[in-house]
Structure formats: structure tokens, C-alpha cells
Specification:
Catalyzes the condensation of (S)-aspartate-beta-semialdehyde [(S)-ASA] and pyruvate to 4-hydroxy-tetrahydrodipicolinate (HTPA). With about 325 residues, the chain is of the alpha/beta class. The protein is about 45% helix and about 15% strand. The relative contact order is 0.13. The structure holds the ligand O=C(O)C1=N[C@H](C(=O)O)C[C@H](O)C1.
Length: about 325
């Protein structure tokens, strides 16, 4: 059982929340014939447990969290947790939550309090477009409602609202707001945050095509859907940078940089699910409406890349 007080554990181990570094995978959720595909899920987690990942996130954007009902999300967590344990892989497991309303998001935290997760990745409220004061109030209320660590998920192009660095830094003062998945897609905003953040506040980039650039500017790692493919190569780039081998890291990134464009050429996670399906890791590339299968044209580009052709993989 993952401790409900993952935060406490982290504090005891290391006051700089060192668990929030490295390559984190926002896992796809396999579906088959309209249902959660538990067999594929177990196989997938077992596969990635053998890869150099430092954390796993369920039910985020890539995991189609908004398409899952509560029972499915709970099964998703328990199967993943069991597969990780069976594989002997001890890494943090975060659950993605999103909502437009603070009260309902607090209820989601209460409902999931006994689930076997380490912490939460929580988006800014979408659709309602609150002010910075409202965003501060939202995340403060969430932080008050759980002892678990919260990673803020700032993704303005999906939620319609940008959490400004001033607000982020105020929220960073809360003990269990431990970092951000930065999808601001604004290198200037990201760099400003990286320069001003406290040492115990993690910044993980969520922009796959900025992975290398964010690391060179000081990001602690990435939450990177593209790392479903070429996982070891993504991890190696960070390891090389840490070891001071910048030329090696850049050479690796030069080879890999086209992959995120291919995997995001149509709405995610369609292309990634297609790749995983063709690789035999999941039994179906199925998604739930409003997500639809990728086009035949993109499928053929992915087939080519998998065969060792163009586009970086
Ligand atoms: O699922 C996620 O979390 C991710 N979301 C980003 C997105 O919204 O597209 C991309 C990132 O790779 C992972």
C-alpha cells in the first residue's frame, strides 16, 4: 500500500522532494470493446516497469482521465499498483484530476483518499476561466483537503486559463503543493519560474517538443507522453546532461526531436495508442468519443517510423 502521507515520506527522505525528478510517464488507458482493458493495462505497466522511468501518472490527458468513470479509475489504480509491485518497481504513482469546480474537485480528493496513489496531478479549473485570486483559492482549498502531494498541471491551451508565476510562487509556499507540470508552452514564463522557484518546488516540463530545452534551463525532468516510445532514449538525454555530456545529449535529441511532432500530429493519445497497438503492447488503439481513431495517412507515417523509416524513431 502506497502511503497516504507520501508527502511525509518525502520530507523525511529529502527536504527537496527529490522524488519529483526525472522521466515521468503519463500512461495511456487501454480500452477494448468499450471497457477498460485490464489485461493490456497489466501488460503495459509490466513493460514500463522495466524501463528507466521515475514516476507514473494515471488518468491525465494521455490517460483520457475525463473519459473514465469512478469505478474504472479505481480499477486503473489498483491494477497499476499491483503490476508495479509484482515487477518490484517502486516509483511514485500520481492520479490525474481535473474539474471546473472547486467543491467537486475537493469531493474527488475525498473519494480517492483510500486509493493506492502517492499524489495528484491537478489541472487548473477549465472552462470557467477564474481570476488569479480564484486560482489561488482553488488550489489552496485542494491543498487543505488532502495530505498528499499535489502537482499543479498548468496547461492554458487546454483549460483556457494560465496560472501566472506570481500565483504559482504563492502556492509553492504550501507544504503539499510540491511542483508543477509546466505546459505553459511559453519558454519565457518557464524560465522565469525556474529562476525564482524555491528549491523544494519541482518543475517538470509537459511539453514534449521542449523536453531538451527545458532540461538545459534547469527543469527537474519531464512528464512526457512521447516517452511511451523510445523511453530509454528520453531518459538517456537527461542522464547525459546531468553527467555534463551536453554534446551527447544534443546529438540524441537531434535524432529524437521529430518524434513528439509525429505523436502529436493528431489529437493525443490517438497516435500513441496506435503505436503501442502496432507494437503489441495493447490489444486495441480504441479511444472514447469525442476522441476518434487516427487517419490512415498518419497511421502509415507511424508504420513507416516503426519500420525504422523517417520521423525520428
Ligand atoms: O497526459 C499528460 O499528462 C500529458 N499531457 C500533455 C498534453 O496535454 O498533451 C502532453 C504531455 O506529454 C503529457
Amino acid at each position: 500500500m502506497r502511503s497516504v502521507s507520501g508527502l511525509l515520506e518525502m520530507d523525511l527522505m529529502n527536504p527537496t522532494h527529490s522524488a519529483l525528478t526525472g522521466l515521468w510517464l503519463p500512461l495511456v488507458t487501454p480500452f477494448r470493446d468499450g471497457a477498460l482493458d485490464e489485461r493490456s493495462l497489466y501488460r503495459l505497466v509490466t513493460h514500463f516497469a522495466a524501463q528507466p522511468i521515475d514516476g507514473l501518472i494515471l488518468g491525465a490527458t494521455t490517460g483520457e482521465g475525463t473519459s473514465l468513470d469512478d469505478e474504472e479509475a479505481e480499477r486503473l489504480v489498483s491494477i497499476t499498483s499491483a503490476a508495479l509491485e509484482a515487477a518490484g518497481k517502486s516509483i511514485p504513482l500520481y492520479l490525474g484530476l481535473s474539474g471546473a469546480d472547486t467543491r467537486k474537485t475537493v469531493k474527488a480528493l475525498e473519494r480517492t483518499a483510500s486509493w493506492d496513489v502517492t499524489g495528484y496531478l491537478i489541472t487548473c479549473p477549465y472552462y470557467t476561466r477564474p481570476s488569479q485570486r480564484g486560482l489561488f483559492g482553488h488550489f489552496s482549498a485542494l491543498a487543505d483537503s488532502t495530505q498528499r502531494p499535489i502537482l499543479i498541471y498548468n496547461i492554458p491551451y487546454r483549460t483556457g486559463v494560465n496560472l501566472a508565476n506570481e500565483t504559482m510562487l504563492q502556492l509553492a509556499e504550501r507544504a503539499n503543493i510540491v511542483g508543477v507540470k509546466d505546459c505553459s508552452a511559453d519558454p519565457e514564463q518557464s524560465f522565469d519560474l525556474l529562476r525564482r522557484r524555491p528549491a523544494d518546488f519541482a518543475v517538470l516540463t509537459g511539453e514534449d517538443y521542449l523536453f531538451y530545452g527545458a532540461l538545459t534551463l534547469g527543469a527537474d525532468g519531464g512528464i512526457t507522453a512521447s516517452a511511451h516510445v523510445c523511453t530509454a532514449q528520453f531518459a538517456a538525454i537527461r542522464n547525459k546532461l546531468i553527467a555534463g555530456n551536453q554534446a551527447g545529449a544534443l546529438a540524441d535529441w537531434t535524432r529524437l526531436a521529430d518524434l513528439p511532432r509525429l505523436l502529436f500530429a493528431e489529437p493525443s493519445p490517438g497516435p500513441i495508442k496506435y503505436w503501442l497497438w502496432r507494437a503489441g503492447l495493447i490489444d486495441s488503439p480504441e479511444m472514447r468519443l469525442p476522441m476518434v481513431p487516427i487517419t490512415a495517412e498518419l497511421a502509415s507515417r507511424i508504420d513507416q517510423a516503426m519500420a525504422g523509416g523517417s520521423e525520428g524513431a
